[in-house]
Amino acid sequence: MVKSNKFLGSVLLISGTTIGAGMLGLPVMTGFAGFFPTLALLFFFWLYMLVTAFLYLEANLALKGNV
């Protein structure tokens, strides 16, 4: 019987989940919209995630571990 490598399997599982099927569809959908509209949308979503992260950080610092 062959011993399986659990670490490699775990890395591949996490990588596959992180990348996801959506990453494969991005080039097709951005081809329809064009380069600059896609760039604007990516910047908008980056900014949205940045603001959300700062809000989480502010809430975390306000609680100071008193949950």
Describe it for me?
This protein has 67 residues and is mainly α. It has one domain (6-63). Helix content is 82%, strand content 0%. The chain contains 3 helices and no strands. The longest helix has 29 residues, at 35-63. 0% of the residues are buried.
What percent of residues adopt helix (DSSP H or I)? over 70%
Shape: flat
User: In angstroms, what is the radius of gyration?
Assistant: 19 Å
Number of helical segments? 3
In angstroms, what separates the terminal alpha carbons? 49 Å
- Main sheet summary: none
Following the backbone from N to C, one meets helices and strands in this order, namely HHH
Return the domain count: 1
Would you identify the regions where 5 or more consecutive residues have pLDDT less than 50? none
Work out the strand percent. under 5%
Tell me the structural class. Answer: mainly alpha
Question: Which tags fit this structure?
Answer:
67 residues; 3 helices
SSE topology sketch:
Elements: H1 6-19, H2 22-33, H3 35-63
Short note summarizing the structure:
This protein has helices spanning 6-19, 22-33, 35-63. The protein is 82% helix and 0% strand.
